[in-house]
Design brief:
The complex is a heterodimer of chains A (about 140) and B (about 675). Chain A is about 30% helix and about 40% strand. By secondary structure, chain A is α+β, with helices and mostly antiparallel strands.
Chain lengths: ~140, ~675
């Protein structure tokens, strides 16, 4: 009985360690920092080149779209700090002046480069308590 | 009406408390009258919750806007069906609906098992009553759906979120809730068994069907959620690893594990601690999922209102559930000793064990990844986000190994199968897998993920077909009946086994659909009338933009013509609907051309009425339909396993009793 317990113990430990190691290594590539604009703008250089999920509000009247294309330029802000952003692609319905958005992408010297399909508009009124636990949506 | 509703809830609160107290006191004193009284109080709760539900539905149907909940989620223009589904469209109402289902389910389970499991019933009643008590308490003190406006009743309601005004959304929550709520029944029986110490397999027998039924509803609810996400949300996919979706998936993993390991306990008397733990974990995960999505602890794109008070109440309840349940399991460990040891690592038992570990690991992984942003903020101070690719990196290999086990498990015999037996069982399925693998490689399908997935699906399917064919042939020879009759009597004789195989077949088909994701094509185009864009094998021509109005909403519809191989194959109408009072939240109406090979999926995110130009997102989703087909097969299998005996009596009667021997390989 003791012998068996030792075997099970060792197997379990090895498995757990191996999985934890794997998890750790994949986590490092798989995660992104989730930051608000003002947090990033305290020291923008430190964040350049890192993958971020940037939370902020679209600055009013800042959305520009190149004619006959999906090229967007706009600014997002939070707590008075603003940042220019570039995006090519289709934007969600709720992307508009003052909308609360989360942008996926990287910070470069000329502003925030949003990854393809990286604009997620957050519309508090839309789902606020309006979602039951189950109504499982997957808006990306 | 509002005060009548609140009064009903208060009465339910008292009745729950009494039912629990009376049942426990009766069991301890051996007073059958007290137990009886507790059971009746328990039924009474179900009646009260039915009354509360009727009141709520009536409030919606009669546009009773003095009730805040009704004013918030309904309006006069809403069709009747969505007035009804508004009942569970919001937080407060969904809790009411939850308790209603739990009380109804609980009453059914108690009534069905009262005579057979007399000793367990008092504690079953007590456990269920306490769970109901918690949710009723939640409503009474914090989230009363019958809260009314004291002054200034609004003339019209705000209306249900347009995204939820969809037939799938009308049935998705009830299906998922039945699944969630149903998991409380096995939990209650497990707790009753632990408390009374009657840990033989009789409690398993009592809960087998309930678990199966709940599992079916859970699967149904998850699938409906996928269909809804696919057809309504309009981002071109069906699963985004969002916390809300994950919340539904977590108990599904552990419930699936339980349905498999249950069989091992019945057959071999092993995995007894494991089974009780799985039931407890499944129940805990249903509560945790509810907590996670309603308290705002996990941030998701769908901003749930943050609700600290609710979070605290749920936390306390969960801590109590965990401590009491696992405490009892540890206390009863001596009674839970296995009757047998594992004979061989190549056996049905060990395959089930491996499947259980994987499913549990999958649940833990999804839980961990879902909670990671919250955890990282709590521990490191930095909020880290995890994207869908990270989930895919882990779940794809897990899913493939599970698929492999799905195929191997049923082919292995119990205890210690012989080498010859293994060869005979595994030969044809392996051939099928290799042939499929070679074929898809020749078609230049990448081997990782999709290629392997197809090969494994072939493996599973071949194994199942082999089981059916061999079983039917044996019956055909020994009983001397025709092959179709032999097949029918085979299924009738062991419905759970052959129903299970059909479920496996459904799962394999769903995996075919999942693998299709790898070949998704996504094109974005800005088109003036007459211009066209191509995506994969399809060419899409934009013709015109129309604007119409039906009183409830304004509809802007694009007319596009679809060509394939130079031939016109149909017209599609992607649209944007602007609901009154929800103009700021236009609803996207996706246009889908379905096909078994691939779906053409068109969304119109933008339009310009001046020059009739539209921006279109054109997505080709290969094999998606197989997910829905696979689910139908899975449901059929589950229904076969659930069918009462008499449905199959006709088939069983044809085979003489002597001929009903198990086919070889068992």
């Amino acid at each position: 009985m003791k012998h068996k317990a030792v075997k099970i113990g060792i197997t379990a430990t090895v498995l757990v360690l191996a999985l934890a190691g794997l998890m750790w290594s994949t986590l490092r590539e798989g995660t992104e920092y989730y930051k608000h604009v003002d947090e990033v703008m305290v020291n923008p250089e430190a964040w350049q080149g890192k993958r971020l999920q940037l939370h902020g509000f679209v600055v009013r009247d800042s959305i520009l779209r190149r004619r006959d294309s999906f090229d967007y330029r706009f600014e997002i802000q939070s707590k008075g700090k603003t940042l220019a952003a570039h995006y090519t692609g289709i934007v969600p319905d709720t992307f508009a002046d003052d909308a609360e958005v989360v942008l996926k992408g990287t910070l470069e010297a000329d502003g925030f480069h949003v990854a393809p399909n990286g604009v997620m508009a957050k519309c508090p009124s839309k789902y606020e308590a309006n979602k039951s636990a189950s109504s499982a949506p997957g808006t990306q | 009406m509002a005060s009548l509703g609140t009064f009903t809830l208060l009465a339910a609160l008292v009745a729950c408390a009494y039912a629990a107290a009376a049942a426990v006191a009766g069991a301890r004193r051996g007073s059958s009258r007290l137990i009886e009284s507790g059971i009746h109080a328990f039924y009474f709760v179900a009646a009260l919750m039915t009354v509360a539900s009727v009141l709520m539905v009536q409030a919606f149907v009669t546009n009773e806007y003095s009730i805040k909940y009704v004013a918030h989620y309904s309006d006069a223009a809403q069709p009747l069906i969505y007035k009804l589904s508004s009942y569970w469209g919001g937080l407060d109402g969904s809790i009411l609906f939850w308790v209603f289902l739990l009380s109804a389910f609980g009453a059914g389970a108690v009534a069905a098992n009262r005579a057979r499991h007399r000793a367990l019933i008092p504690y079953v009643v007590a456990t269920l009553s306490i769970v109901e008590l918690f949710f009723v308490f939640l409503m009474v003190v914090h989230k009363n759906p019958f809260d009314a406006f004291l002054v200034e009743v609004p003339p019209d309601g705000r209306g249900l979120n347009p995204l939820l005004q969809n037939p799938y959304m009308a049935i998705h929550p009830p299906a998922l809730y039945v699944g969630f709520v149903g998991m409380a029944i096995p939990y209650a029986f497990a707790m009753a068994a632990l408390i009374t110490g009657r840990l033989d397999d009789s409690w398993l027998q009592a809960v087998r069907r309930w678990t199966m039924l709940s599992w079916l509803f859970l699967s149904f609810g998850l699938t409906l959620g996928m269909i809804w996400a696919y057809e309504v949300l309009g981002w071109g996919g069906y699963w985004g690893w969002d916390p809300v979706e994950n919340a539904g998936l977590l108990p599904w993993f552990t419930a699936t594990a339980f349905l498999h390991s249950l069989k091992v306990q019945e057959r071999r008397g092993m995995l007894r601690v494991w089974n009780v733990s799985l039931v407890v974990t499944t129940f805990f995960l249903t509560i945790f999922g509810t907590f996670m999505t309603r308290s705002g602890i996990v941030q998701s794109v769908h901003a749930f209102g943050e609700d600290r008070q609710l979070a605290i109440m749920f936390s306390v309840f969960m801590v109590v559930v965990l401590n009491v349940s696992y405490g009892y399991i540890i206390y009863r460990l001596p009674l839970l000793r296995p009757r047998h040891e594992l004979d061989s690592w190549v056996s049905r038992e060990s395959a089930v064990l491996a499947n259980n570990w994987l499913l549990l690991f999958a649940a833990l992984f999804v839980l961990f990844a879902t909670m990671f942003p919250t955890l990282s903020e709590a521990i490191g101070g930095e909020r880290m986000a995890i994207g869908a690719p990270f989930f895919a990196k882990w779940t794809v290999p897990i899913g493939l190994v599970l698929l492999l086990l799905t195929g191997i498990g049923p082919l292995l015999g119990w205890r210690r199968p012989t080498a010859a037996n293994l060869r005979g069982q595994l030969f044809w399925p392996a051939v099928a897998a290799l042939v499929t693998g070679a074929a898809v490689t020749a078609l230049r399908v990448p081997l990782w993920a999709a290629g392997i997935c197809f090969a494994l699906c072939a493996f599973v399917a071949a194994g199942i077909v082999q089981e059916f064919v061999r079983g039917a042939l044996v019956r055909h020879r020994t009983a001397g009946i025709g092959v179709p009759a032999a097949l029918a009597s085979l299924i009738a004789r062991s419905r759970r086994r052959y129903g299970g195989y059909v479920v496996h077949l459904g799962v394999a088909l769903m995996f075919v659909g999942f693998a299709g994701t790898q070949f998704k094509i996504d094109v974005q185009a800005l088109l003036k009338p007459g211009e066209q864009a191509s995506a994969g094998a399809f060419v899409v021509r934009h013709d015109a933009v129309r604007v119409t109005d039906d009183g409830q909403k304004q509809m802007i519809t694009a007319e596009v013509t679809v060509f394939r191989g130079g031939r016109e194959v149909g017209k599609l109408h992607p649209a944007r609907w602007l609901y009154r009072k929800h103009e700021q939240e236009p609803a996207t109406e996706v246009a889908i051309r379905r096909g078994l090979a691939s779906d053409l999926y068109i969304i119109m995110p933008g339009f310009e009425l001046k020059d009739q130009s539209v921006s279109l997102q054109i997505i080709v989703n290969p094999l998606v339909s197989w997910i829905w087909v696979g689910f139908c097969v899975l449901a059929l299998g589950a229904l076969i396993a659930l069918m009462p005996d008499r449905v199959f009596r006709f088939a069983a009667e044809r085979a003489p009793e002597a001929a009903v021997a198990s086919p070889p390989g068992r």
